Every structure is written in structure tokens, then in C-alpha cells.
Amino acid sequence: MAVLRPAGEFDHSYQYDMATIRRRWQWVLLIVFLGALYALPLYHAYLPSSISSWVSPSMVNRIAISIIAVQGLNLLTGYTGQISIGQAAFMTVGGYISALLVNNLGFSFFLALPVAAVGAGLVGLMFGLPSLRVKGFYLTMATLAAQFIIPWFTRHAYPDILNQTQGLNVSVPVLFGIEFNRPETYLYITLTTVILTTIVAHNIARSRMGRAFVAVRDNDLAAEVLGVDPFNYKLRAFFLASAYAGIAGSLGAHRLRHINSESFDLSDSIIFLGMLIVGGLGSSLGPILGAITVEFLTEAATLFGPVFISFFPETGGRAVQALKPLTFGIALMLFLILEPRGLAHRWTLIKAAWRLRPFSEL
Fold first, then answer.
1. Whose CA, among 130, 166, 171, 189, lies 20 to 30 Å from 35?
2. What CA–CA distance (Å, rounded) separates 284 from 187?
3. Residue 41: which of 61, 25, 26 has the closest Cα?
């Protein structure tokens, strides 16, 4: 399928053809948007109460960490076609590694973060080995094993180090004497990290490795005939997905200032997969749109809780707790029926329609 260009726009060089952001006004909009996010702690207190809860620093931190986790899952499931529901388990690995390095060995958080990513990636390789023999439902069950084995390990192995079910208290990040101990300051770490991971994931998808991922996803036998080693690239995808989970887990642990076996559980892995489906598999924009949409739906369910109780007072607080998974389940079902290719595909169709004459000349 040919890519539609706005009227009068031509690819005059290879660099221009490969550019993600082509026009000056697009750069201006991107810089303004990022500037508004970075400046959020300065003006958040002046926003109306009806808006402030939707764009609070805490909400931005949660969305950014979810985006990173879903970006890794997108490389594995969206591009390589290997279904995994163990992403939260690898976040636990990253959180524990970062906590141990900072608390016990005196590492800086900014040095512990990449180490946590590599450590989680290596653990993910071990659970990715079944992909050499099995696929589909059986591979899903193999990744599900990580969601039981890793939390069990943190509860029962090395009690003097991992502190069993109590888990570990995590130090706040410190840089040049500045403590990132509040959501308003921690936002700068999460935003910067998600920008970097987005750039890396997008370029991986466009590289030779990314094209090999897609070939394995579409038909691994045909890919092997063309010279692509499916086993090699499946393991690479598992490593990258787990490394991204390790980054998200490290950020999440230091944001919560605590990590234990229940900090990131099976429900989180399912939600991450749902975010990817809502946003769109196999696209760089999918994890961003999916994480934002699901987090906003969760926030809407929380805000709607008191209204629901006023209509059904006999349900009490149980209804509020049930609204979050209920909202997520209904949204996922509707997307699978009405928009199975996700929001990213819908955005692509909107852009293609706008680029047709005469709209692109406006």
C-alpha cells in the first residue's frame, strides 16, 4: 500500500523519506507539547479541579511507566507475534535489581536503571527459550509461568536479602544533590526515559532487526527460507521486551518507594496486553495511545465511583473496586469488535483522508 503524501510534498532524499517528523510545524507542535508536560508542575495547581486530576504529575508518571512496559510488549507481540502475559513479572525483576543495587551497593539510580534493564532482559531470555519449540497458546502458558515463578522466588529465596513477602524499601533517586521524592520532580525522570525508549523502539522497528521481527511474525517458515533465523530473532525480541519491562519496573519501584512480589502482578500483565490491543499492535504510536486511553478509563471509573454509589448505596465500596476491571473489560471487548486494529490504525486512516485533496492544501 502506497503511503499518501500531502499535495506538493515529494521525497527528495533518502533521509527525508525516512524522517518521522517532516514539517516545521510538526516540530513546533511536538516541542510545545513536551514543554507543556515538563512544565506541568509549575501550573498544575492553577488548573480547575475538574481537569487537574486528569493531568496530574502522578497520572503522567503512571502513564509514562505503562508506555515503557507496553513498548517492550509491542516489540515482542506486535512486531514478532510472540504472545506474552509475563511482562509484569519482568518488571518485578527490574524493580528488585534496581532496589538492591541502590540500597545495598550504593549505586546511583541512573546507573542502576540500565543494569536493571539488562538483568531483566537476561531473565526474559530464559523464559523465551520455549519459543524455540512452541508457539501460540503453548507459548502463552510458558510466559505465564514467569508470573508465578518470579514472585515465588522473591518471597522464598534469599530471605535475608529479598526480605520475603515484606519486600524492600527503595531509596528515592538523587542527582547532584536534588532528591526526586515527589511526583512533580519524579515526572522529569519518567518523561525523559519514555522519550528515549520511544526513539529506540521506533528505530528498532525500522531497522533490519525490526523487519526480521515482522517476517517471523507473518510466517516464520518463509522467513527462514529467506535467511532469517527465527530462533535468534525470537530470543532478541524476548530480551528487548524484558529489558523494557526492567526499565518500567525500576521506575515503578522508585516511584512507589517499595517493591515486593505483589507490586506488579498478573492483572498488570493482562492490562498491558489490553493497552497494546487498544492502541494497536505493531505500531510505534500504539503503546502511547493504548496506555493513555486505558489509564484515563481507569481514572474515569474512579471518579465515577461516588456517583455509582449514590444510585446504588447498598453496594458500598465494593462497587468502586469492581468498576475498574469492569470498565477495562468492556472497553477491551468494544475495541476488539469495533476497532480490532487499534487507535493507531484509526489515526493512520484519518491522516490518509486529510492528505487527499483539497484538505491537504488548507
1. 171
2. 22
3. 61
Set out the domains of the chain in order of their start, with CATH numbers: 57-361 (1.10.3470)
Amino acid at 97: I
**What does the alpha-carbon distance between residue 41 and residue 157 come to, in Å, rounded to a whole number?**
41
CA 242 to CA 123: how far, in whole Å?
A: 8
Q: Residue ranges of the alpha helices (H) in the chain?
A: 14-18, 24-38, 40-43, 49-52, 57-73, 87-104, 109-128, 137-156, 159-162, 183-206, 208-218, 220-225, 230-256, 266-279, 286-311, 317-338, 342-355
Exposure b/e, 196-209, CB count within 10 A at least 16 = b: ebbeebbebbeeeb
How far apart, in whole angstroms, are the C-alpha atoms of residue 103 and residue 358?
A: 61
pTM score: 0.90
The candidate with the shortest Cα–Cα distance to 65, out of 294, 336, 230, is 294
Grid cell for residue 260: 515486593
Amino acid residing at 353:
A
Q: Residue 139 and residue 167: Cα distance in Å, rounded? A: 30
pLDDT tens-digit readout, 186-215: 999 999 999 999 999 999 999 999 999 999
Cα separation, 326 vs 296, in Å, equals 14
Question: What's the pLDDT tens digit per position in 42-63?
Answer: 888 788 877 777 888 889 999 9
